[in-house]
Write a structure and sequence with these properties.
Blueprint: E1 5-10, H1 18-29, E2 34-39, H2 47-57, E3 66-70, E4 81-86, E5 89-94, H3 100-105, E6 110-113, H4 129-143, E7 166-167, E8 171-179, E9 185-190, H5 191-198, E10 203-207, E11 210-212, E12 227-231, E13 236-241, H6 246-250, E14 257-262
Parallel strand pairs: 1-2, 1-3, 3-5
Antiparallel strand pairs: 4-5, 4-6, 7-8, 8-9, 8-14, 9-13, 10-11, 10-14, 12-13
Helix pairs in contact: 1-4
């Protein structure tokens, strides 16, 4: 039998002890767990980016993986902690919408509140529930308990209002939702929506009123410093500058408008 696997995503960064401490708690409960860091570099308190990054990664993990997602600006408040089963995986997170994009892909089969105190640390910090509530819950799942043991059914749960592309007769409108570390401007326009819109004739791509010269398959199809559009690894339309930073060079940021227009 393979070792249980927990994948972690947070806004804790790596400068401080937070991410490592959660791993220590997990290993204290379930020593044989394999731990994988998706990222701890989510911008502080940015639940939307956490949701999108988790959704971009989870489906590439083995079935049965447990995901521990801690991007939690409401730590210490009355917001709940939850655990969920969806798409053959289990998730532990604050109930603040960080699981929204995963649940958009596939509705959860079960969602429970983290109310059973025996599966948390004896004292729960008002400022570090990742250590004291969420990490123990994930570790106990790895150890073999059922999701339902963690608490009562959650009923409803928080969902973010994720921006969706809008289609009219002549324009497919979207927006930048992520600026990655390479400066690529990743939009909410997925390949299927784009191809359905473009099926009826030639199109051109415009961002904030400025035309994008080419839609390419790889960065190598353009010269250094040139701007292009392409479908990246998440299969969403993105704008990139070869060996450059599209965000800085174009002034692009989350919320910047991208349009696909019929010629």
């Amino acid at each position: 039998m393979s070792a249980p696997l927990i994948a972690l995503i947070s806004d804790f960064g790596t400068q401080d002890h937070y991410a490592g401490t959660m791993k220590g708690v997990i290993l204290g409960i379930c020593p044989g767990t394999t731990l994988v860091d998706i990222t701890h570099e989510i911008p502080a308190h940015d639940v939307l980016t956490g949701a999108l990054q988790l959704a971009a990664a989870y489906r590439y993990f083995p079935a049965g993986t447990i995901f521990l997602a801690v991007v939690d600006p409401g730590v210490g408040s009355s917001r709940r902690g939850i655990a969920a089963e969806a798409a053959g995986y289990r998730f532990v997170a604050p109930d603040n919408g960080v699981l929204t994009a995963v649940f958009r892909d596939e509705a959860p089969r079960k969602v429970v509140e983290l109310t059973e105190r025996r599966y948390a640390r004896p004292t729960v910090s008002r400022t570090f529930e990742g250590r004291d509530r969420f990490a123990p819950a994930a570790a106990w799942l790895a150890k073999g308990i059922q999701l339902s043991a963690l608490g009562r059914p959650a009923g409803s749960y928080i969902q973010l209002d994720l921006p969706a592309p809008q289609v009219s007769d002549d324009v497919l409108s979207g927006e930048v939702v992520v600026v990655d570390r390479f400066g690529n401007l990743v939009s909410n326009i997925d390949r299927r929506t784009f191809e359905a819109f473009a099926r009826n004739g030639p199109v051109r791509i415009v961002t904030e009123g400025e035309p994008v010269a080419r839609l390419v398959s790889t960065y190598t199809e353009i010269g250094p410093g040139e701007l292009c559009a392409l479908f990246g690894s998440s299969d969403h339309l993105e704008l990139a500058v070869n060996t450059g930073h599209a965000g800085r060079e174009m002034g692009g940021r989350r919320g910047s408008r991208i349009e696909v227009r019929r010629n």
